[in-house]
Design goal:
Layout (H helix, E strand, L loop, with lengths): L8 H17 L16 E2 L2 E2 L3 H5 L11 E3 L15 E4 L5 E3 L4 E9 L2 E8 L3 E6 L1 E3 L6 E2 L4 E5 L11 E8 L2 E3 L17
Antiparallel strand pairs: 1-2, 3-4, 4-12, 5-11, 6-7, 6-10, 7-8, 8-12, 9-11, 12-13
């Protein structure tokens, strides 16, 4: 998750490390697990959500927003990249849970308000800059308000945007794959 100036690679690495540490310690209440199946699609970056998982996810902004900047997985975890997507937003716009879960952490990282929602299967959504609409521990259904977009300047300046990240453990996934908008990537046959 790019928390600082995208040209400041050292600061970005520190910001990403700080967010990863916070997310690793955030208490995520375990809900019913989604069992892994041998038929799970796999990309070069790891497993992709199954069609049944994608059907249960929605955009965190309504109406579905313009994607200002797409996911860009770094070649190595410590290298610069874009660990989520930037969605065009307006100040004060409601941020909603893309699927059912529980708000697992709220606070400020690198001067920006952050909301983290834990989901089934160990997945977590992160939103910034977003001020929490409910305290950590609150259960949310798909579409429930979890926060509002704040006026904190971000890397979309002068535009206002919401950065949405999705993690599985410490691995960032492309949030657009959960709403059926990820680019198609063909892999060679084994």
């Amino acid at each position: 998750m790019s928390l600082l100036n995208p040209d400041d690679h050292e600061a970005m690495s520190i910001g990403s490390a700080l967010l990863t540490a916070v997310l690793a310690t955030a208490s995520v209440t375990s809900m019913s697990s989604v069992p892994a199946t041998s038929g799970t699609p796999v990309s070069a970056g790891g497993p992709l959500p199954s069609p049944t998982t994608s059907a249960r996810w929605a955009w965190p902004l309504d109406p579905p927003p313009e994607v200002v900047r797409r996911f860009d997985r770094p070649d190595q975890p410590w290298l610069p990249g874009h660990r989520g997507v930037d969605l065009a937003a307006t100040l004060g716009q409601s941020v909603t849970a893309p699927t059912a879960g529980r708000i697992s952490w709220t606070g400020v990282i690198a001067g920006r308000a952050v909301v983290v929602v834990g989901h089934d299967g160990g997945l977590r959504s992160t939103f910034e800059p977003a001020a929490a609409a409910a305290p950590a521990g609150t259960a949310v259904a798909r579409g429930d308000r979890v926060g509002v977009v704040t006026s904190t300047p971000g890397h979309c300046a002068p535009r206002t945007c919401l950065h949405w990240g999705v993690l599985s453990g410490e691995t960032y996934l492309d949030p657009l794959s959960f709403v059926g908008r990820a680019p198609v990537v063909l892999l060679p046959l084994p």
